[in-house]
Give the backbone structure.
Amino acid sequence: EPEVTQTPSHQVTQMGQEVILRCVPISNHLYFYWYRQILGQKVEFLVSFYNNEISEKSEIFDDQFSVERPDGSNFTLKIRSTKLEDSAMYFCASSGETGTGSYEQYFGPGTRLTVT
Amino acid sequence: AQSVSQHNHHVILSEAASLELGCNYSYGGTVNLFWYVQYPGQHLQLLLKYFSGDPLVKGIKGFEAEFIKSKFSFNLRKPSVQWSDTAEYFCAVNAVSSNTGKLIFGQGTTLQVKP
């Protein structure tokens, strides 16, 4: 069964450093997402991406964040200058459009980002 | 703003007990509804979903959920839990009008099933 993959599984970085989290969505999917979960809190939507552009972003997704689909398979989340509060589990998800236009998202295993 | 509320944060049951996890959402428009499960050390997996039609939906592993529009609820049920159902359960909502697929999650319910 196809699945969403993410690398690395755990990333430790120092405050102020740039990080890139990588995701390989399911190959025939059209919609891509990033979510994050701070320890002990809800899973929060960050951004959705369709047709090579951001379709929606949350308040969390400020100028420090960016997403890119550099080739036909990867989908990346970049944090330009990490802060302590960026420490969280980051989940990538993808979905294809069904005939009804409804969405079922498939999630990757997550990248645990620790900012020290 | 949309929000999702799960009533129980931590539920402990014995095997063969019945399960009901509550989920309520706040949004006035048409929604798609989901329950995801995260087993220990694994990623989020879809248990079941409601898009339209019969409000009683059946998912994998014997789970079902009922959408009650008047109550803005989508409670998850299973008649007889097993030890292997120990996991975290998340209710999620997507507003159809958003057209982006954005999911709003509840805070999750940790289910512990004692053998």
Notes: The CA atoms of residues 94 and 102 of chain B lie 6 Å apart.
